[in-house]
Amino acid sequence: MSVHKAITKHSTKQNHLVQQFMRLDEEREQAIDEAVKLCQADEIFSTGRINDATQKINALARQGVVPQRKLVTKEMIEEYVGRLNKK
Predict the structure, then answer these.
(1) How many domains does the chain have?
(2) Which of 12, 24, 54, 74 lies at 20 to 30 Å from 30 by C-alpha?
């Protein structure tokens, strides 16, 4: 029975990490969308919320279950908006 309990505990931990990742990834995507909209409107924007979520995601990723994400710079947002405007 102890092997079964160990497997269940491990699976539960991995599931918890994946759930945290999904929540943080959604938070990150929303922050990116907000920064893009502000940049498109020529308003001041920050990547702080994006990178806070990114750092939390990367801390989870070091546990080996979820993928890492790159930190985002203001220049990256501006370049993306520039590509959107060319379409």
Answers:
(1) 1
(2) 12
